[in-house]
Amino acid sequence: LPVELVVTHPKMDKPDGSSSTGYRYTLGLTLDQGVVEDQTGYRMNEKYEMVEGDWVFEYLFMNKPLMVQRFTTYKP
Fold first, then answer.
1. How remote is the C-alpha of 14 from its chain's centroid?
2. Distance separating alpha carbons of residues 18 and 72, to the nearest angstrom
3. In order of start, what are the domains of the chain with their CATH numbers?
């Protein structure tokens, strides 16, 4: 099944001068006995990724939300 993952995050200013506020890509998931399963995460490996703010992870099917997870990050 073509399920789209859409991630929105606080603005990140990258070392190359570009910036990012999110990304999206399509997953080819398999339907097994009426269930679709996926796992996702985000690891903050670079200093420029350590930003405070709101994040949203959304799974969409045919442009309709299947699941939405929101959270906020804070600097220690």
1. 18
2. 23
3. 2-73 (2.60.40.2390)
**pLDDT value of residue 1:** 87
The pLDDT value given to residue 58: 96
Convert 9-43 into a string of H (helix), E (strand) and C (coil).
EEEEECCCCCEEEEEEEEEECCCECCECCCCCCCC
Whole-model pTM: value is 0.85
Q: Which two tokens stand for residue 74?
A: 């804070």
State pLDDT tens for residues 17-63. 999 999 999 999 888 998 888 888 888 999 999 999 999 999 999 99
Q: C-alpha distances in angstroms, 70 versus 1, 32, 49, 55, 58?
A: 24, 27, 17, 6, 9
